[in-house]
């Protein structure tokens, strides 16, 4: 199983990522470049090890939203360096943060241009069914695929029904299940994942579960890939994560105490990378 670290290029790690972009461009100070601090941050092992990590060891799975990265040019050199990179359309975030009417074709034009310019291999459709309806989503999807020359990852929602799921897995080799984070799908619905995964497997179709990091569920349901922003909770709420054997364990900060945000963010990111590698290696 692949786990993608969602919104990984942000917050207290931005300075470290910016070091990496300068390193890749060959403009970073030579002494700092050799130190390799930013490289260690995203690799399993001791952050304070003096080993000089090589660029080819820099292999993690990352999911980012187009909404968040579209105006952050310093991020762009990183996109082709990850082991695997998933681009979310960011359509819902754009809608929620906009104070004016939306023209989805204009937004899609920008999304397509970004995908083409940076040769993004894996990207989701604009799954805005609840806003424009499935027929309009299909029209936008058709345009997205035609103008990129690539197949997108369609995202199933409960409103599409089981027949639509069967259609998706028969026509695509990689699909996603949405609505978990928004609680459109809750824990009482999880047992249905067996049917979805089995029917997809019959068609040799891979399934991504958006925002699914339920520890028991990860063991029980064999998704091809998942993503999570859980590692960010340390910075948000003062929690520290540890990879223990086959799962992540969260320890909340003692009442009345504070954590050092930057060190917590680095620690949690490192632990989630270890968990990611465990999941992927376990199923290979």
Keywords:
284 residues; alpha/beta; TIM Barrel; 8-stranded parallel sheet; two-stranded antiparallel ribbon; 13 helices; 10 strands; globular
What does this structure look like?
- This protein is α/β, with parallel strands linked by helices.
- It has one domain (2-7, 60-282): TIM Barrel (Alpha-Beta Barrel).
- Helix content is 43%, strand content 15%.
- It is built from 13 helices and 10 strands.
- It has helices at residues 14-25, 30-35, 37-41, 66-69, 91-97, 104-117, 129-132, 134-148, 161-171, 193-202, 215-220, 233-237, 261-282; strands spanning 2-6, 61-65, 84-88, 122-123, 155-156, 174-177, 206-209, 225-228, 239-244, 247-252.
- The chain has an 8-stranded parallel beta sheet. Strands 9-10 form a two-stranded antiparallel ribbon.
- Strand 9 and strand 10 (247-252) form a beta hairpin.
- Helix 6 runs parallel beside helix 8.
- The longest helix has 22 residues, at 261-282.
- The radius of gyration is 19 Å and the shape is globular.
- Mean pLDDT is 78; it is low at 22-58.
